[in-house]
Amino acid sequence: MKAMEVNNVKAGPVLVAAAPPQPQPGEGEVLIRVRAAGVTPTELLWSTTTHTKEGSVRTRAVPGHEFSGIVAELGKGVSDFNVGDEVYGMNDWFAEGATAEFCLTQPQNIALKPKSLSYELAATVPISALTAWQGLLDRAKIQSGERVLIHGAAGAVGMFAVQLARLHGAYVIATASPRGTEFLKRLGADEVIDYTTSRFEDQVGKVDVVFDAVGGETLNRSWPVLKPTGRMVTIAADSEGTTDQRVKDAFFIVEPNQKQLSEIAKMLDAGILKAFVSAIVPLAEASAAYSRTVRDKHGYGKVVIAVSA
């Protein structure tokens, strides 16, 4: 099959074309014919990309762990889906990803694709929407009427966090560059603070929840704006290796969840949740997507790799 693998030679593109064998589903696995894969450029730096689960060096990994596609084959014992089902979802971080014509996943990691979305648009959803859902609803347990501050609100995760917080009755304060102001207000943000000209802590007062997708100084400056009962949630990669217990407690990594994906699909089909794609590139140009050099990006959302027709 056609695939794009991480280039472990220093010179050249970050991904190179490859032709690994088509994977075969084992017991409890589902083979997906990938139609589109969402791009998270920082994935190339993740420990799961550079190392195996046992800790040894991993080379020539296939990135892309969120996708949309068609169920091509079912492993023994799988009864949740049928061959030919249109699905979207994730696969294991240590598995070979979806920047390829086929990938393996497990039934609990996928759900039926939103009917109203194209394959490309659906591929932008799983990681971003699940991260926002799990951060706000499972961890922070936001309540109607609470004040929620969202950093990186115009980003791939932040835009879902804004929508979900608003749908659950929160008062939403977003930080973004001037370019994102109108976009975020259309998504439901009550206030948008331009972080290039203003310090959010001088404007927000006290909040019940901070959802941080930025990290670093922004995260550090956010603790004082929390109410005594306030909750901090961060997904910033620089928090993963911290020794600060507060940050350890606030940090989390998204997990696949079939039930949540199904609920998200219903919301997308109902039009109360919206997804966005900034550019679509063919598989052969996946390296440009991961090195952030796609030229014709527009609007908001993720870059998506169109894998097969």
What do these coordinates show?
With 309 residues, this protein is an alpha/beta fold. It has 2 domains: 3-125 and 275-306, Medium-chain alcohol dehydrogenases, catalytic domain (Quinone Oxidoreductase, Chain A, domain 1), CATH 3.90.180; 127-250, Rossmann fold, CATH 3.40.50.720. Helices cover 22% and strands 26% of the residues. It contains 9 helices and 14 strands. The strands form 3 sheets. Strands 3, 4, 5, 6, 7, 13 and 14 form a 7-stranded mixed β-sheet that branches. Strands 10-9-8-11-12 form a 5-stranded parallel β-sheet. Strand 9, helix 5 and strand 10 (191-194) form a beta-alpha-beta unit. Helix 3 packs across helix 4 (158-167). The longest helix is centred in the middle third of the chain and has 14 residues, at 126-139. The chain is globular. The protein starts with a strand and ends with a strand. The model has no long low-confidence stretch (mean pLDDT 95).
